[in-house]
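Hi there,

I know you've been waiting on this one. I reran it after we fixed the sequence typo, so this is the corrected version. Both the input and the resulting structure follow.
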Amino acid sequence: MSKPKVDASQLVREAVAAELESLIPSLRESMMKPQGIIHDGITCSLCSVSPIVGARYYCASCDMDICESCEPEHMCNLIKYKSQSVVKA
């Protein structure tokens, strides 16, 4: 009995197609997210990203502007203001 011939290119196409299909849900989710608000001229005091996009936090105790990603790392819990107003992307 002879084994059926394996078409390597077909196997590669199927593997690539399966990989691409697995990415579709995360791509769809990221495309649905709003771009956020751009805080032009404002730099995060912790990670130096500029401009801050999305929620912007200001710690009045430390006099620091903080991006949404770094806010959980900022341990000062005295006075923080969350700002989402400025220019929409």
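Quick highlight: The first strand starts at residue 37 and ends at 39.

Best,
R. S.
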